Amino acid sequence: MSLISVDHVSVGYGANSVLRNVSLEIEQGEIVTIVGPNGSGKTTLLRTLIGAVRPASGKITRKDGLTIGYVPQKLHIDPTLPITVERFLRLPGGHSTAACALALEQAGVPKLSQRQMSDLSGGQFQRVLLARALIDQPDLLLLDEATQGLDQPGSAAFYLQIEQVRQRTGCAVLMISHELHVVMSASDRVVCLNGHVCCEGTPEIVSAAPEYRALFGTGTGGALALYRHEHDHAHDEACNHDHDHHGHTTETEAAE
User: Fold this and answer.
1) Are the C-beta atoms of residues 127 and 157 closer than 8 Å to each other?
2) Can you tell me whether residue 89 is helix, strand or coil?
3) Structurally, what CATH architecture does the domain formed by 1-40+55-66+176-247 represent?
4) What's the pTM?
5) What does the alpha-carbon distance between residue 140 and residue 138 come to, in Å, rounded to a whole number?
6) Euclidean distance between CA atoms 225 and 219, whole angstroms
7) What are the residues facing 25 on neighbouring strands?
């Protein structure tokens, strides 16, 4: 059984339709990336999956006992609030020191437990958010543009950590990303969203599909262009068609 199954789900805010008849499934252990232009409903889809938004129609089926970890785009903490990383991780569930230490180790920052949250760099802060998402050992990890605001080396290091988390824990990963090199190097499957699922498949299949070119243009063309870091134009230069999944290669950029 799939970890989570989305069956013809539609979501709207008032008269504004955001998602229309979206269907997808997430299997154990796979990394799936959602790409799409601004306003395409990517964040709304993730919020619907975690139950923060109720669909207007359609059905979401979760595997019994499914545990989900969520890393948001950003989280504001009052810089004057004296709170250590460990105390932040223990709220609100009262997790043990051992559980906090394991989560920080899985997130690649094992020595931060006694640091003040206000003293962390942007990259360290995102790793702590990742640790918080991992503390309950989730079956499915959701990331909503979790590297927004990080430089390219920091972003590459973060997504390399995500791959290591997948390898070590076997959890599935569903992430939103505008960084094309991440989509190509770290995804088994890509889903192109623009209010509806335009296409899905391996990065190679999606990048060559005419639906993508109609939506985002041809750019510089050719497979090599898929590895260029072009942000919003390339932010979806991997999107369209449907086919089978798997097509994973390992991110090789070094962590900072």
Assistant:
1) no
2) helix
3) 3-Layer(aba) Sandwich (3.40)
4) 0.81
5) 5
6) 8
7) 5
